[in-house]
Amino acid sequence: MGTVPEDLTRVPDLSSTGGLHTEEMVLNVGPQHPATHGVLRVLVSVDGERIVRAEPVIGYMHRGHEKLVEQRDFRQITNLLSRMDWLSGINNEIPASLAVERMLELEVPRRAQYLRVILAELNRITNHLMFTGSFGLELGATTPVMYAFRERELIQEALELVTGGRMHFGFIRPGGLKEDVPRGFVELARRGVRQLVAKIPDYENLLMGNEIFKQRTVGVGRLDPALALDHGVSGPILRACGIPYDIRKVDPYLVYDEFEFDTPLGAQGDSFDRFWVLVQEMKESARIVEQALDGLPEGSHIGAVPKRLTLPKGQIYCHAENPLGELGYYLVSDGGNKPYRLKIRTPSFSNISVAAHMLRGAFVPDMIAILGSMFFVVGDIDR
Amino acid sequence: MATPPRSLRSWERVDPEEFSRRVAGKLGDAAASVDVRNGTIHVTLPAGDVVGAARVLKEDPELDCAYFNFLSAVDWEAEGFEVLVALHSLTYGNTVIAHVRLPAESPSMASLTALYGGANWHERECAEMFGIDFDGHPNLVKLYLPEDFEGYPLRRSFKLASRRYKAWPGAKDEEEAAAGGPLR
């Protein structure tokens, strides 16, 4: 230990703040930060505790999916698309197959359509449970994530039983599914969703009934509905603003119009509402799974699909309700067996593009509550 | 900001054919063509009319395309670029995709950022990936790629780096083999 330099021991004279020098400071959050779920970087200018400007910097996980799919045929691209939003592979794969099926006018057996709905909703539940747990964790509550992962594991097991994978399923094929579901799946899936529905009140009491949680989230990070539309925000974040945009309802695909389910809507568009909508959506997904399991038709899991998949010349836009929002594929075919161009419109990209506006004027600790409730996956932003 | 406007709380899906007639009527001569394919309305716009037409689509209460969905492009090589602007009307439940043809040499069109804030990132991505200039964009710097990256990766002429140095070994089917193997 040396001696402390004299100027560091000096106590500044704060009797008059007029002479105190203040300036804006740039705070670099990420790209490695626990609250960014991957490699998102946010450049934050702060004036004291107040955020003056925030600019998300993306691209640390850009893998060029849109280029890679141009080199692969319509069956192979499924496995690439599954890796964009790694929490909901099934939901990523569905609209790609829909695009091929609609262009070829392929008939998809009803059993395959029902199973797609079941798998998509189970996947939506595992995605939402992940964010249910992680949002609490980011706000300092370590218990909810343990509960969320307990329920998640049962549903994850059901998905694993069917697809053999836990993340990158590669299970949805143009015309139907890779395989039929094995024996025991229906019971396992039913057990999973029933346990989930029984335990949801626990999450609600533990988090949304908690005074600290409320103080951290109520009124924090309000998203103006007009701003949300302007940026193409979708999914639970848009619905938390009270806008009933759910593609399963607005532009039904598969057999979603045969099931009864509601679209939970928030009112304030704040972090609390976003989380509330997320949790309510799990109940609705569970309702859909139960109905689909009850009515699961017999038959084939895949329709008659030509061995060589060659699409006619043309363009099509196919979108579906990914757990995080609208996932759209704009497919351009030049008549070959590979996409000439596939524009991938991911929910996280549009959702996080509005973050700069939401962070402006917020306090630094609220940044975590805001980013945590934007429910994004970096692979889905960067593609 | 407490409650969203009434019009956003309810929606009804207007038949796409009917909505396309409405779009054609409102855009008038600004649209070169309007047609419906697979339930989506496709509008062809001359490059000079994009902002004006988008303003009509957004602000006319009978169209109400306030939802900015995405913006991207397709490279048709010698035939130039086709920029896609996808807008959505939540009130009437229809998606309108505008197609704008730009020349292959120094493609450029007016930026939509003043009208739709969400166009900012989409135009930045489109600029770095295709080399399309968006006139009037406040900050047209690279979004995903490093600042010093050269080339436009999503152009058809841009080959994957791994394939540039080592060709893909095998043909997957007879047609590819006949054509001398694939370029993958």
Features:
heterodimer, A: 383 residues, alpha+beta, Cytochrome-c3 Hydrogenase, chain B, 3-stranded antiparallel sheet, 16 helices, B: 184 residues, alpha/beta, Beta Polymerase, domain 2, two-stranded parallel ribbon, 26% helix, disordered N terminus
Précis, in short:
The complex is a heterodimer of chains A (383) and B (184). With 383 residues, chain A is an alpha+beta fold.
Describe this structure in words.
- The complex is a heterodimer of chains A (383) and B (184).
- Chain A is of the alpha+beta class and 383 residues long.
- Chain A has 16 helices and eight strands.
- Chain A has a three-stranded antiparallel β-sheet with strand order 1-2-3. Chain A has a three-stranded antiparallel β-sheet with strand order 6-7-8. Chain A has a two-stranded antiparallel sheet with strand order 4-5.
- In chain A, a hairpin with a 2-residue loop joins strand 4 and strand 5 (176-177).
- The N and C termini of chain B lie far apart (52 Å).
- Chain B has 184 residues and is of the alpha/beta class.
- In chain B, the strands form two sheets. In chain B, strands 1-2-5-4-3 form a five-stranded mixed β-sheet. Chain B has a two-stranded parallel ribbon with strand order 6-7.
- Chain B has helices at 6-9, 16-27, 50-59, 119-130, 161-165, 174-178; strands at 33-37, 40-45, 67-75, 81-89, 94-102, 108-110, 133-135.
- The chains are: A alpha+beta (383), B alpha/beta (184).
- The interface between A and B is large, with 50 and 47 residues.
Instruction: Determine the number of helices of chain B (DSSP H or I, runs of at least 4 residues).
Output: 6
Q: pLDDT below 50 for ≥5 consecutive residues: which ranges of chain B?
A: 1-7
Q: Report the order of strands and helices of chain B.
A: HHEEHEEEEHEHH
Name the CATH superfamily assignment of chain A: Cytochrome-c3 Hydrogenase, chain B
Q: State the strand order across the main sheet of chain A.
A: 1-2-3
**Count of individual beta strands of chain B:** 7
Just give the CATH class of chain B: Alpha Beta
Distance between the termini of chain B: 52 Å
Strand content of chain A: 5-15%
Number of strands of chain A: 8
Structural class of chain A: alpha+beta
Share of helix of chain B, binned: 25-40%
Q: In the residues of chain B, how many domains can be counted?
A: 1
